[in-house]
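[step 3/7] inverse_fold.run input=structure_tokens len=296
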């Protein structure tokens, strides 16, 4: 049955055994993967997995929500509200943005306020976020900033490697589709994905990453074992594992681009079943050599 919404984070893997790194790389094998056939499709998340255009978005969303909650007249301190908001914003990170706004509306109502439609909060957030990232987008368009500076390191190389191996690429994001398409274009990513770029729409019940995955399997009549899923959010990792695919956690250090994994992301994504963890795409050729080993 198709699920038209994205479920909240639930840790499904209590603990793992010892992990290992592919020799001389930053590629962490959480559980060994042995494929019966080569991957045919790869589903990528966008923000934080490929694009860094929106890096720092919590610094926009959290203060906006604290302001809305403060307006209810609650006696809670700004510090307590910030802690509350940060917890649920990050808990829901990876889902469509609207889910965080639905939670905000619930918190406002719980404090005796009269919340607006969650879409109104989402629109306000986008307005504030665009103010923050407008200079990045403009710099990309003008050529003042090279796309590589606002991508997870070695993104182009990873996409090219998969294309060369005959893998069809899909992009599925919780960000609104019009923004995803626009930013994929100015980052030079659109040619890799073609028409397979998907994002959130006004009616959140009619889009989910799981629906994209189900469509791939249905239209191409393939088993889930032919899928790769790559992302820094729990939804795509959880959905790919649920479909029987191989999940690669991109535990990216968005602000520092350090080549070291973000430990919060790493733990969170292992908790929903990630098979492999990478901090970025610098050693992605080794990932593919590992996955394609012994396959004709």
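[step 3/7] decode complete -> sequence:
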């Amino acid at each position: 049955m198709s699920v038209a919404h994205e479920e909240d984070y639930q840790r499904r893997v209590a603990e793992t055994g010892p992990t290992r790194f592919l020799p001389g790389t930053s590629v962490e094998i959480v559980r060994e993967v042995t494929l019966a056939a080569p991957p045919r499709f790869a589903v990528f998340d966008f923000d934080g997995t490929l694009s860094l255009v929106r890096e720092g978005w919590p610094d926009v969303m959290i203060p906006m929500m604290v302001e809305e909650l403060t307006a209810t007249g609650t006696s809670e301190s700004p510090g307590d509200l910030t802690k509350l908001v940060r917890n649920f914003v990050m808990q829901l990170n990876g889902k469509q943005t609207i889910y965080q706004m639905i939670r905000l509306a619930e918190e406002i109502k719980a404090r005796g306020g009269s919340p607006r439609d969650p879409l109104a909060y989402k629109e306000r957030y986008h307005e504030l976020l665009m103010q923050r990232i407008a200079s990045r987008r403009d710099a990309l368009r003008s050529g003042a900033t090279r796309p590589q500076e606002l991508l997870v390191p070695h993104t182009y190389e990873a996409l090219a490697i998969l294309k060369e191996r005959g893998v069809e690429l899909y992009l599925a994001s919780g960000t609104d589709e019009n923004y995803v398409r626009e930013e994929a274009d100015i980052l030079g990513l659109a040619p890799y994905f073609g028409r397979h770029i998907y994002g959130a729409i006004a009616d959140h019940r009619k889009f989910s990453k799981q629906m994209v995955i189900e469509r791939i399997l249905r239209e191409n009549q393939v088993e889930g074992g032919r899928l790769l899923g790559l992302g820094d959010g729990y939804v795509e990792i959880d959905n790919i594992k649920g479909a029987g695919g191989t999940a690669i956690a991109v535990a990216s250090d968005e602000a520092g681009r350090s080549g070291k994994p973000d430990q919060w992301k790493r733990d969170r994504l292992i908790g929903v079943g990630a098979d492999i963890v990478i901090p970025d795409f610098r050693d992605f050729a080794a990932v593919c050599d590992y996955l394609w080993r012994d396959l004709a």
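[step 4/7] annotate
Residues 64 and 165 are 44 Å apart (CA to CA).
The mean pLDDT is 93.
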